Amino acid sequence: MPKLVTRSDGRKCKPRTKPADGQDSNSQGAQLNQQDGGDSAVTVAPSAAYTQVPGADKAPASSAAASSSAGGDNWIGGDNNNQGNNAQASSTSSAEDTTATAPTKEHGYGGGLPSTGSVGGGPAKKAGVSYIAPSKAWDELKDLLGWFSTYSATPGDGMPGPEGDGAETPTFVAILWGEGDNPAEPSDGDRLQKFKQLAQEDSYVRYAQGFFEPDCPGYMSADMDVDSGLRLWNEIVEPMKNKGTALISPSMCKQMAETWLQEFKEKGGDWQFTNVHINKPDGKSVRAAVDQYLDRYGKDLWVSEWACVYDHTGRTCDRADDNQFCPCTDMGEIENYINGTVYLFEHHPRIAAHAFSNGDGLGDQWKLWDKWGGDLTATGRLYRNALQAARDGTLQIPEGWEEACANLN
């Protein structure tokens, strides 16, 4: 009998089923649905299909200039109702990936500059949070963030809207979570209707993100087949491009082992930024995921969730009965991971945006805030401090991340 997962609202549910043998899995996904709720410029030419975005007169001109190719691994997801909001988390499992290679000039990182800056039309400040709401934590972080999401199409009362560029105020990134009929996720239908309404409005939406982990089942993931996803994408999301919206691909729960997005692309799905979830324990595996997704799709990355997670077998924890998704618990390790990830992502000229994963399923040590609407936790303060140091140009590559952060210039 699999161990039950306790959601934020106190409900119990079965954890997501693990992928077939030989597949990697990503894990963790924070999701909360709120009810109606820089500096140095790093420049990269947008992908060909998006070189001239219709409606670009509504948005600041994007910069151009650095070419490269490179490229991902494992899985993510989750959802919990909490005071009218839905929080998400996920579990994962996977066989050890042995294909990771050291970064080389083959992955062509020319001109990477530290800290904030727009990459190929990305937000003016790269850093974000996968979920946040009005809180003391928000007040402490917002000046360092370029964007945020709520796993829905509405930002929540008192939060910024979806039209900004992330320079002065973080911009809200709307998400089409699923196709509206996931029996494991009661809010799926409401999310779909809210996104449809947003897509039909005349107001400007700068960024729109595709389905949340459609390649896995359970309340933590959208659980969609590729054909259904493509139909809905072409019906609702793709037309938003004509109004100047930059499209962010569906995210995958099976990180580097994913095949869903590959089939989606082969059947005609198109987007500007490739959406990536990274749940890894060290710099080498984080960089391997980045390089694989860049190599595979050739588009700049939007890392919409990242967290410190041991996602392979061989480590014991209480996270799940198969012990293949174990969040990091040592605060020294977490500090090292946050500093390394922020350094890598802020300096990488092909990463347009990235977000600390703020959701359930990642253990007490990883939480961004201490309670709903509360203060930053010790981990939240580590993220804030890393972002501030990146902005000031004082963030250093931590021990063990030297190889992962090589060849970024």
TrEMBL record:
<feature type="domain" description="Asl1-like glycosyl hydrolase catalytic">
    <location>
        <begin position="133"/>
        <end position="383"/>
    </location>
</feature>
<feature type="compositionally biased region" description="Polar residues">
    <location>
        <begin position="23"/>
        <end position="37"/>
    </location>
</feature>
<dbReference type="GO" id="GO:0009277">
    <property type="term" value="C:fungal-type cell wall"/>
</dbReference>
<feature type="compositionally biased region" description="Basic and acidic residues">
    <location>
        <begin position="1"/>
        <end position="12"/>
    </location>
</feature>
<dbReference type="InterPro" id="IPR053183">
    <property type="entry name" value="ASL1"/>
</dbReference>
<feature type="compositionally biased region" description="Gly residues">
    <location>
        <begin position="109"/>
        <end position="123"/>
    </location>
</feature>
<dbReference type="InterPro" id="IPR017853">
    <property type="entry name" value="GH"/>
</dbReference>
<feature type="compositionally biased region" description="Low complexity">
    <location>
        <begin position="61"/>
        <end position="103"/>
    </location>
</feature>
<dbReference type="Pfam" id="PF11790">
    <property type="entry name" value="Glyco_hydro_cc"/>
</dbReference>
<dbReference type="InterPro" id="IPR024655">
    <property type="entry name" value="Asl1_glyco_hydro_catalytic"/>
</dbReference>
<protein>
    <recommendedName>
        <fullName>Asl1-like glycosyl hydrolase catalytic domain-containing protein</fullName>
    </recommendedName>
</protein>
<feature type="region of interest" description="Disordered">
    <location>
        <begin position="1"/>
        <end position="124"/>
    </location>
</feature>
<dbReference type="GO" id="GO:0071966">
    <property type="term" value="P:fungal-type cell wall polysaccharide metabolic process"/>
</dbReference>
